[in-house]
């Protein structure tokens, strides 16, 4: 198009309509005078001798030489050669302007093509970069989402373990109360039965074990609650980071879908200014990695704490159940021993009662025998008294007299022996009565002790929780 315009302009300059191709058109400078540039042939002078004129100067023609002659019809300021030169200048200026316009238009077209190509390439690169960035954000967001789900499961698992631990602490109050109740009940044993026997030692060991386990469980509960707080803090940080990445991903997704034909684009002056709060890409990834590393460490600690709690509860339940079995065995052994001694004492009591009855019978027999000896004594004394009534020489100490005296002595000796035996029988009877009282009291004490150990302590021990309940289930 520009070449056609240039050819047309050349044709107008060289071949005007109605003129030979070798002569310039009449509105351009002619060949008269100097060649090549066709300058003015001569300056404009006065017309005739009657118009002297004078030197004048104009903005368009410069110095004209003379002032034109002025009459009532016209005014003349320039010559024909000046007019032709001005036409040539105008035509040359137009040609120069048209050439410049064509050059500028071509340059504009090239600039547009180059600018659009650069803009399209830059936009494509930016779109690809936004896609890559959105993919990276989505990958980290998905990783955070998996970590949040895993942490939520860990929090739920640790919460179940915490409830299990609290249940175990609640159940632990029962064996503690049972052991204390057993010790308190056993303090009500009679005086002679207040001994430090095996059941008491085992009960004291059980109370000590329960106190130690309770302290460990309380410390573990405090550790679990602190770990649960750390788990929730890490989960909250990951959720906060995930929500920010979700917003950033949605923002970059919107940016990825923006095109030149989009209707929701606007001029945003100042959008290229970087905010002071903007972070670097290295810090962005470092922050998320630190969050994920914190999650890994926190989850590892939580799992270790849960495993530790399982071991603690299992060992505690086993130890408590073992100690409870030891206490129950000691109580059973003690009750069996008390039953044996009670049965032995009851057998002895029956023996004592039998002997007491036999002794009383023997005492009665001795008393009857002593009373019967009085008759013999009265007989022999009466005989002696009658013999003492013999007259004079007849009253002699003959053999019958000696035998009667010996009989009196013998009766006295026998009576004394029977009285002494009666005294011994009565002493034995009193001793048997004392032993009977002691045995009855001891049997009563043993029965009370057995009632405490069997009917109270063993009954309480029957409500001792199982290993499953002590484990918190």
UniProtKB/TrEMBL annotation:
Matching InterPro entries: Tektin-like, Tektins
Annotated compartments: Cytoplasm, Cytoskeleton, Cilium axoneme
Keyword set, alphabetical order: Cell projection, Cilium, Coiled coil, Cytoplasm, Flagellum
GO cellular component terms listed in the entry, alphabetical order: axoneme; microtubule cytoskeleton; nucleus
Coiled coil: 342-369, 422-449
Record flagged with keyword Coiled coil: yes
GO biological process: cilium assembly; cilium movement involved in cell motility
Family: Belongs to the tektin family.
Protein name per UniProt: Tektin
Phylogenetic lineage: Eukaryota, Metazoa, Ecdysozoa, Arthropoda, Hexapoda
